[in-house]
Amino acid sequence: MSGDLRLTKDLFLWSISVIYLFAFASLFVQIPGLYGDKGILPARLVVQNEAESFHDLVTNQPTLLRLLPKVGLDIKTGMDFLSLGGIIVSFVAMVSHDYRNCVVFGVLWAFYLSLFQVGQTFLYFEWDLLLLEAGFLAVIVAPLNLFGLRDVTEHRAHDRITMWLVKWLLFRLTFASGIVKLLSKSSTWWSLTALEHHYESQLLPTPMAWLFHQFPDWWHQLTAAAILTVQILISLFFFSPLKLQRRFSLYVQIAFVLLFMLTGNYGFYQYLILTLGLSLADDHFIAGWIQHPTEAEPDHPKRSSWSDRLSALEIVFVAMTSAAVLFIVFMSFSFNLSISPLSLQPEIVISPEDLDLALYYLLPLTMAIGAISLIWQIGASLIKVLSQKCHHGGNRLCDLIGCAIFGLIATSLFVVSLVPHAAMQKDVESYVPEKLQDIYSWTSQNYHFVNPYNLYLKSTDEGNGRLEIAIEGSNKLHGAWKEYSFRYKPNDVSNRLSIVAPHQPRLDSQMWFAARGRYDQNPWFLNFIFRLMKNEREVLELLDDNPFPDKPPKYLRAVLYRYQFANKRSKTDKLAGSDWWTREMVQEYLPPLTVDEPSFVGYLMEAGIYYGWDEEPNNTEEHNLLYVILDAIRSLLGQGNGNLACILLGISGFVLTLVDPCIKFALEDEQLANGISARGLNSK
């Protein structure tokens, strides 16, 4: 049946497998430099003692790293084990549909949660939280299928309930992303000038970012208005009873995701949003994109216009909801049209107080829409089971129980998710029961079943350009300074912008945040400087070039620069044609330091990120076979190119996926079902 979710569910699980593969592979190549004993933030400093019991493990610090000493692994090698295990398990789930079950996704979620618990600031990105929540939903969506008794792609009665949770997550993410832009009271978003700065000030821009930055100001302002409209208003169409509006909202979401994917490197974030967007599709939609129509299908009826396929009541509904959206848009924005030169310049005409009042009514409305939609999905699933005359396997009772159980799980997660959703307006938040807030706090802090999302709250600079930190070394306090070169973030103004995603270079990305604060607000940065003073190989491998390969410099300092895209089209531009940036010094970020300065080392010890492990003798303890294998793999692979690793693994997995016969059979089943439906229409 075209309304089934067999293909959709399996494609969602396949996509989650791919994202896990990227996440684990990207992190694996960075573990020694970030979390090794001589890394920037040694993981063993934050891991509690070995778990004494199961209760201790799940209540205090839920990470499998607390169990791995039982099998002879230290913390860093344990992180290698979890990352490599995640790569292997996610790759197997990607290439074989038989292993896309809830146990496999439970293992992947537990592995990533374990790494997240000790990842500290380098794993506190929004897409890490989103992967944990989406990964937990994948456990619920995936079939049990422990012994391969049933086809994992078979449609189950509760699939619509579990996929609804994915849709609700997509809505919360999209809606919050739009609202927090305005709640932050950022002058760039309220003036709709955010995109005039975004392309050059974002985390890690791509070459296309330079091109989009050259667009006229009115275009950036119009795009900013469109983003706010889509994220706040069009996202409500996710729950429309009409497939037409749901697909429209999906197409719009895809368009903006592709925009940000082309212009910015956000790890696996955009891929994850596209994966969540599958909750707006069904098998008929997916099959229509995957398989190509041929002339050998004469039984299919001629495609009619959308108005011919809608009833009069549905046309009225589309007209009313579209009119409501247009009314809100024109009440919120004014548009100034200019013919010469051609431009359409929008302007926000509401105030922050108006927004706060609107949220007071809008947030409860979205909660009500979500509740009604969930109740509808649960009720429809139960009715469908009861109404089927010939149910597969005759196990109707099991399907009824499944619908009831997953309906209860979905309701529980929905209720808990209302806490961060309501937090966007303080008066609405005050109505949330304190007990529910406590449940949310415990689950979000320990397991991240539900998370708040505010990616763009502080991501756009208020001024032009981007702030970047340059680290320089010298053997003389007032001598010539040599700059360390990073792999991906802006350094030399002539360095070409790179496409890094889905790899997430954690150090380069975190340097972006450090530039927006002070060094004393980022203790990890001072330990990074300390490790450079020691010429620690693991840390230096995270960089592109070490200007002091033989002996570390006596002094290190950090300088804050403001980078701006070079305008290559300008005739008055004095830069060489190969330059991508211009830069000017803003101020000294960190004064010159030397490793011999007692106060420097004392500060690191006081901050709890250095305990003099450099002075400890080498451990001569004999290790077991597992440790030796992991150590050999690390010695062989080192800290290579994470981007290349993600690409090679992704391509290999995709090719092997095409060999999986499940894809062919599922598409043939869908094509057969569509053909039967078409012949039925023709016979009428």
Which features does this protein show?
684 residues, two-stranded antiparallel ribbon, disordered C terminus, alpha+beta
Helix and strand layout, with pairings?
Blueprint: H1 6-28, H2 31-35, H3 54-59, H4 75-95, H5 102-119, H6 126-141, H7 159-183, H8 187-190, H9 194-201, H10 207-213, H11 217-232, H12 243-263, H13 269-276, H14 283-290, H15 306-309, H16 312-332, E1 333-338, E2 343-348, H17 352-387, H18 396-422, H19 426-429, H20 434-446, E3 466-474, E4 482-483, E5 485-486, H21 506-514, H22 523-533, H23 537-540, E6 543-545, E7 555-565, E8 581-594, H24 598-606, H25 625-637, H26 642-659, H27 661-683
Antiparallel strand pairs: 1-2, 3-4, 3-7, 5-6, 7-8
Question: What is the CA-based Rg, rounded?
Answer: 27 Å
Strand count, sense and barrel status of the largest sheet are: 4 strands, antiparallel
Please indicate the percent range of residues in DSSP E strands (runs of 2 or more): 5-15%
SS content category: alpha+beta
Total number of β-strand segments? 8
> What portion of residues is helical?
55-70%
Outline: globular
Low-pLDDT regions: 292-304, 569-576, 675-684
From the N-terminal CA to the C-terminal CA, the straight-line distance is: 18 Å
Overall average pLDDT = 86
Summarize the structure in short:
This protein has 684 residues and is of the alpha+beta class.
Structure description:
This protein has helices at 6-28, 31-35, 54-59, 75-95, 102-119, 126-141, 159-183, 187-190, 194-201, 207-213, 217-232, 243-263, 269-276, 283-290, 306-309, 312-332, 352-387, 396-422, 426-429, 434-446, 506-514, 523-533, 537-540, 598-606, 625-637, 642-659, 661-683; strands at 333-338, 343-348, 466-474, 482-483, 485-486, 543-545, 555-565, 581-594. The model is unreliable at 292-304, 569-576 and 675-684 (pLDDT under 50). Helices cover 55% and strands 8% of the residues. The two termini are 18 Å apart. It contains 27 helices and 8 strands.
